[in-house]
């Protein structure tokens, strides 16, 4: 056949049915582009992913009743809060062990022994470094027999096998001051000098429900309560979500409140709840004498006792995640949306042509001949090829 050239030819078909179908489809496409793509999906605004930072400070007072002495001690945030980047842990219950360096029976089941052959001197075990002795403990097995354990050198006595936890009172009323700043890169501020920036620090003092939250508030937003998490701890995340229409100005921008708290660890797994150990800087005195425990009278700096209060704290761990978008009118975004939408108009012609050719019964053949015409360009002029 050789080379050929294909070009467009406009065909006007005077048919009210096809006309109605075509303009009906055009109306649907225009409604989709104008209403859905431009208005609902905000195709006239550019979006910028929020880049957020958060600073936290927790304050409050709690009490803990000592189970043995009955004395009530006041604890503040400095005793109970551990900070981490964008989050914190607050203890709602404590298990404390007063320890000094010395020798004592290991407290781990793996350190159980019948005789000294199981205790290899110098070997590291869960509680310390073995001395090579197998010694009696204060524990009894199911048959009432005294349990023997390898003696270790280390911090003594070891933590009890089962935590003896005491719950603090009033931790739910501790307040969390959240200092949030959010920037929208690529969206200039009113002066055009930098990016749009939002903070929750306007005002002269911290405000509950704005930049100040109680532990109760935060837990309740996730359907939790201090009582539920107090003894075992909990691991969660607070989502601070922005969806800001910056055409209304930065002052109209705010995160969704109340924040939503989500659990990040699922219950009934290997590691349930949440707890952290730390050494308290409290002036702790000396641990009491106990069977099998020999305290060392030597420290690295000469005679004396090295003493520490080991604290295992249970409670909620809460991290904050600042996410979201800012949107602002932009000609380029609008023209891209409209341009892409207009391309959909081709669908209307495509559908009408398909209806003409495949769904018009005996007229289909005629429609086809109107749509496609082929000409032969010869030195004597052109001839139309019959279809
Ligand atoms: N958890 C909180 N509960 C109540 N108020 C708080 C809390 N955290 C901070 N504030 C108060 O918010 C303001 C700003 O706190 P910021 O830490 O910037 O200042 P500060 O002077 O160092 O605070 P402070 O010395 O009181 O801890 C201060 O008035 C501070 O007392």
Automatic annotation (TrEMBL):
<keyword id="KW-1015">Disulfide bond</keyword>
<feature type="binding site">
    <location>
        <begin position="275"/>
        <end position="277"/>
    </location>
    <ligand>
        <name>ATP</name>
    </ligand>
</feature>
<feature type="disulfide bond">
    <location>
        <begin position="119"/>
        <end position="150"/>
    </location>
</feature>
<feature type="transmembrane region" description="Helical">
    <location>
        <begin position="20"/>
        <end position="40"/>
    </location>
</feature>
<feature type="glycosylation site" description="N-linked (GlcNAc...) asparagine">
    <location>
        <position position="173"/>
    </location>
</feature>
<dbReference type="GO" id="GO:0012505">
    <property type="term" value="C:endomembrane system"/>
</dbReference>
<keyword id="KW-0472">Membrane</keyword>
<feature type="binding site">
    <location>
        <begin position="57"/>
        <end position="59"/>
    </location>
    <ligand>
        <name>ATP</name>
    </ligand>
</feature>
<feature type="disulfide bond">
    <location>
        <begin position="113"/>
        <end position="134"/>
    </location>
</feature>
<keyword id="KW-0067">ATP-binding</keyword>
<feature type="transmembrane region" description="Helical">
    <location>
        <begin position="337"/>
        <end position="358"/>
    </location>
</feature>
<keyword id="KW-1071">Ligand-gated ion channel</keyword>
<dbReference type="Pfam" id="PF00864">
    <property type="entry name" value="P2X_receptor"/>
</dbReference>
<dbReference type="InterPro" id="IPR059116">
    <property type="entry name" value="P2X_receptor"/>
</dbReference>
<keyword id="KW-0406">Ion transport</keyword>
<feature type="binding site">
    <location>
        <position position="312"/>
    </location>
    <ligand>
        <name>ATP</name>
    </ligand>
</feature>
<feature type="disulfide bond">
    <location>
        <begin position="104"/>
        <end position="156"/>
    </location>
</feature>
<keyword id="KW-0407">Ion channel</keyword>
<dbReference type="InterPro" id="IPR027309">
    <property type="entry name" value="P2X_extracellular_dom_sf"/>
</dbReference>
<comment type="similarity">
    <text>Belongs to the P2X receptor family.</text>
</comment>
<dbReference type="GO" id="GO:0001614">
    <property type="term" value="F:purinergic nucleotide receptor activity"/>
</dbReference>
<keyword id="KW-1133">Transmembrane helix</keyword>
<keyword id="KW-0812">Transmembrane</keyword>
<feature type="binding site">
    <location>
        <position position="175"/>
    </location>
    <ligand>
        <name>ATP</name>
    </ligand>
</feature>
<dbReference type="InterPro" id="IPR001429">
    <property type="entry name" value="P2X_purnocptor"/>
</dbReference>
<keyword id="KW-0813">Transport</keyword>
<feature type="disulfide bond">
    <location>
        <begin position="244"/>
        <end position="253"/>
    </location>
</feature>
<protein>
    <submittedName>
        <fullName>P2X purinoreceptor</fullName>
    </submittedName>
</protein>
<dbReference type="GO" id="GO:0015267">
    <property type="term" value="F:channel activity"/>
</dbReference>
<dbReference type="GO" id="GO:0070588">
    <property type="term" value="P:calcium ion transmembrane transport"/>
</dbReference>
<dbReference type="GO" id="GO:0033198">
    <property type="term" value="P:response to ATP"/>
</dbReference>
<keyword id="KW-0547">Nucleotide-binding</keyword>
<dbReference type="GO" id="GO:0005886">
    <property type="term" value="C:plasma membrane"/>
</dbReference>
<dbReference type="GO" id="GO:0005524">
    <property type="term" value="F:ATP binding"/>
</dbReference>
């Amino acid at each position: 056949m050789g080379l050929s050239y294909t070009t467009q030819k406009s065909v006007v078909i005077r048919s009210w049915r096809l006309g109605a179908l075509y303009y009906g489809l055009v109306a649907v496409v225009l409604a989709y582009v104008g209403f859905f793509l431009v208005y609902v999906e905000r195709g006239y605004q550019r979006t910028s992913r929020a880049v957020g930072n958060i600073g936290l400070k927790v304050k409050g007072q709690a009490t803990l009743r000592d189970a043995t002495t009955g004395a009530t001690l006041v604890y503040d945030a400095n005793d109970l809060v551990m900070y981490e980047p964008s989050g914190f842990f607050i203890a709602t219950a404590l298990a404390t062990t007063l320890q000094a360096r010395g020798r004592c029976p290991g407290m781990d089941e793996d350190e159980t022994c019948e005789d000294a052959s199981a205790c290899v001197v110098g070997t590291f075990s869960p509680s310390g470094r073995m001395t090579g002795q197998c010694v009696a403990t204060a524990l009894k097995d199911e048959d009432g027999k005294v349990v023997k354990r390898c003696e270790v050198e280390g911090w003594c006595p070891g933590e009890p096998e089962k935590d003896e936890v005491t719950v603090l009172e009033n931790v739910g009323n501790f307040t969390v001051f959240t200092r949030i700043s959010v920037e929208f890169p690529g969206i200039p501020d009113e002066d055009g000098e930098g990016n749009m920036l939002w903070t929750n620090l306007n005002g002269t003092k911290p405000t509950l429900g704005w930049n100040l939250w109680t532990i109760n508030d935060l837990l309740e937003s996730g359907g939790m309560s201090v009582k539920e998490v107090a003894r075992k701890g909990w691991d969660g995340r607070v989502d601070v979500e922005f969806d800001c229409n910056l055409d209304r100005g930065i002052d109209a921008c705010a995160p969704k409140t109340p924040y939503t708290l989500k659990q990040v660890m699922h219950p009934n797994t290997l590691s349930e709840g949440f707890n952290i150990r730390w050494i308290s800087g409290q002036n702790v005195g000396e641990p009491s004498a106990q069977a099998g425990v020999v305290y060392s009278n030597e420290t690295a700096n000469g005679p004396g006792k090295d003493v520490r209060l080991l604290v295992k704290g249970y409670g909620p761990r809460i991290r904050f995640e600042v996410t979201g978008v800012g949107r602002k009118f932009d000609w380029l975004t609008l023209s891209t949306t409209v341009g892409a939408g207009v391309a959909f108009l081709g669908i209307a012609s495509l559908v009408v042509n398909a209806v003409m050719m495949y769904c018009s019964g005996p007229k289909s053949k005629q429609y086809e001949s109107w749509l496609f015409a082929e000409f032969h360009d010869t030195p004597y002029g052109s001839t139309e090829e019959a279809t």
